[in-house]
Design goal:
- The complex is a heterodimer of chains A (154) and B (137).
- Chain A contains 7 helices and no strands.
- With 154 residues, chain A is mostly helical.
- Chain A has a domain of 64 residues.
- Chain B is mainly alpha-helical and 137 residues long.
- Chain B has one domain.
- Chain B is 69% helix and 0% strand.
- In chain B, helix 1 packs across helix 5 and helix 5 runs antiparallel to helix 6.
- The longest helix of chain B has 23 residues.
- Classes of the chains: A mainly alpha (154), B mainly alpha (137).
- At the A-B interface, helix 2, helix 3, helix 4, helix 5 and helix 6 of A face helix 1, helix 2, helix 3, helix 4 and helix 5 of B.
Amino acid sequence: MLDEFFPRGVIHYLLGGLLIGSGISVLFLLTGLIGGTSTFFSSTLSFVSSQPFFQQHRLVASRLWRLVYALGLMIGAGLYFAASGEAWVTQVSHGQLLLGGLLIGFGARLAKGCTAGHGICGLASLQLPSVLAVITFLLTAIAVAQLVQFIGVG
Amino acid sequence: MRAATLFAALLSGTIFGFGLALATMIRPEVVLDFLRFRDLGLLLVLGGAVMVTLMTYQLAPRLLTKPLLGPAFEKHHAELSGRTLLGAALFGIGWGLCGVCPGPAIAGLGAGNWPLLLAVFGIFAGAYLQGRFFPGK
């Protein structure tokens, strides 16, 4: 029964989830900041774009810590890689990664949150809009992933 | 920006990134398997992360007057609007197409999953288009 729903096991998923929550918690306990990840892309664009949207105070004021936070994400995953020796290079096609990324970036910024911002921080803040956002992106993601599998692209 | 804040961001990002890698969320294939109901592990990851964060967000502001290194606890405000739902729908389409989301896209680069650079480039381009042409109010 468990194998059917979790063919790769359950422990690493649970421990990984607890660590993700711990990372976001450490940021909040130490600094009071909310640790979503998609704002990083807009705030980092403020270094290079003079467009008024990117120069707004909210993004400029947070761009440095968000950049360092992103660096931490890479270091953390790199440490796991160094410790485990498990290397993964995705087989998902380059076109899917690029087009998917474009929609993810546009959609997450329009919605002001992604799987971390709405999914973890929003749900943990008991925010109804985040609950609705999570339900919405889960439904469209499941529909598209099933469709892609059905037509045999991915 | 104070050095202490940056240190906190580096520390918390590192724990977050290690967790993403341990949970194999930096592998788009595992995320796509969840969306295709072949492996429901992502629910455990999300559930574990929300549980810990929920306790922190709800308890810390009640037990502490302010964060250990900062001036005040921020509150997460999400707005109920067409933009939020339309954005979430588009985000989901992209997520279902490639199995990548912003955190794992960044973290995966640190573990040598180099094709994720394409996703990161796409996310930057999408974020630029949003800010340039649909900045909102």
